[in-house]
Each structure stands twice: as C-alpha cells, then as structure tokens.
Amino acid sequence: xxxxxDLQWVLPLRSAAGIQxxxxxxxxxxxxxxxxxxxxxxxxxxxxxxxxxxxxxxxNALLNAYAKDLFQDPRPxxxxxxxxxxxASYGLPSGHxxxxxxxxxxxxxxxxxxxxxxxxxxxxxxxxxxxxxLGVHDLEDVLAGAVLGGASLLVFAWAQRQPNPxxxxxxxxxxxxxxxxxxxxxxxxxxxxxxxxxxLAAWLATATACLHWDRRHxxxxxxxxxxxxxxxxxxxxxxFWGEQKLLKILGLQxxxxxxxxxxxxxxxxxxxVALFVPWVSRALHLTPARGAPxxx
Length: 296
Hints:
The protein is mainly α.
C-alpha cells in the first residue's frame, strides 16, 4: 500500500459520529466560516491582528488555487468521498490543510499564549485529518498543503521584520495587491481561476484602503466588556449575512462576467466589513466613541 496515495486505511476508522466530527472540522476550512471568522475578529477582538490574518489567508488562497490548476492532480476515487462540496477541483495541494496551518498557526503566533498554541494546533490537525477521513484528499495532498502554509508563514513573518515601503505606504500596498493578483490571473494555468481569487484580491485591496482611512479618521476600537462584544458580534454577523444574501440575489439578476462580479463583491464586502459595520457599531454605542489605535 502506498501510504501517500492510498486511503484504504481510513475506511475501517469511519463511524457515524466520526463522520459528523470530521464534517465539523472541515467546515472550518470553507469560505463561509473563514469570512465570518475574520470579520468578527476584526470587529470585536483586534482589527490590526485580523487584518494581518486576512493578508495571510488571501495570499494562501491564491497560492493554493494556482498550484491546484498547475499540478492538476486528481482527488481520491469518488466512491470513497463523503464531502460533496469539493466539486470538480483538483487535490494537490489540500486547500484545507494549507489554510488550517496558515490561519490557526499564525493566529497562535499572534496571541503568543500557551493555550493558543495548543488550541490552534489541535484545530489545524483536526482539519487536516478530516480531509483524509472524508476521502477528499490523500496524505500527499495534506502534507503539501501544510508545507505550503507553513512556508508562507515564515515568509510573511520575515517580511514583517524588513523595512520596506509596503509597511506604511497605501499606494505601494495597493500596487502590490493589484500587481500580484493581475500577474496570477494573466498567467493562470487553468481555463479560469476560481471566483474566490478575484473576490479575495478585491476584498484585501479595499480593506487595506479602509484600514488606512480608519487609522486617520474613525479609529475604530473593539467593544469594551463581554456584553457589548456579544452584541457587536451578533449585529455584525446579521448584517454580514444580509449583505452576502443581497449580493447573491444581485449576481443572479445582473449576470455580469464572473471574474468582474467576483471582484465587485470583494470591493463591497471589504468596505462593508472594514467601514460600514464598525460605523454602525459605533452609532449604536457598542464600541468606544473614538478608540486608540490597536497595538500592532
């Protein structure tokens, strides 16, 4: 048996409870959770920390999608798959594994507490194992995703320590985002990139501009106290859910070019998360009237 590609060892481990648990872990790697998690963290925890997390997630999403279409490595046989959300996408590298390492390990590094390292490492391992348990990735896919995710964190941590205009200049930051996204789209190895690629690029560019404006003018700060934080979380989640539903309805009505519409959704969502929801939270007195900038 080739341990890197054969998943026959997984089949005897399956049970009804195990499948449900694996589904739960896998949900932590899909776009719905990622968008809500990063947005809520931005509103109620630390906007600077979760902005950096957005950069890490967006970069890894682009890298993973590009690598999948470049290698075009098929997933395990259809008859052993238990997650039908993967569609016709390729297997190598595993996006869930790459995102699990990039998101949770970076978050643990940001928090720098022992409990955070244990919790985030456990979640990352659970997500990675769930992809094999559900039969949608083999061990090679998962290991490749984990390595790419880890390598991206090393590069990002190194880049943060280097003096360069990207750290302060909005123009340079936007030019880098547009340049990298444009180069990737122009050289895409497949017929068409997934719709989340232009969406995340536009979201990141818009959120970058909004954060610069916020630092100078609004200085949004997280709520003080558990009750205000819970209220701000519920309010933001409800508003964000409504915005996503509205964009879905508009997309069906407008029938624009998929890449263009995905970029438009990213612009709207980036401004919605980084400016509109914070403004509403402040208007309802859930957040301080004028908060000091969060620590970097």
